[in-house]
Amino acid sequence: MGIYDILSNLAETYEKLEEGFYSYGDYPAPEKLIRNDPYISISTFNGLIDIIMELDEFLGGSRVTREIIELIEEDSAISNLVNFDEQDHASERINQDIEAYDENLGPTQENASQQAHEIKSELLDVAMEDIRRLMEEILPSLIR
Question: Which of 24, 78, 95, 118 is buried most deeply by CB count within 10 Å?
Answer without folding.
Answer: 78
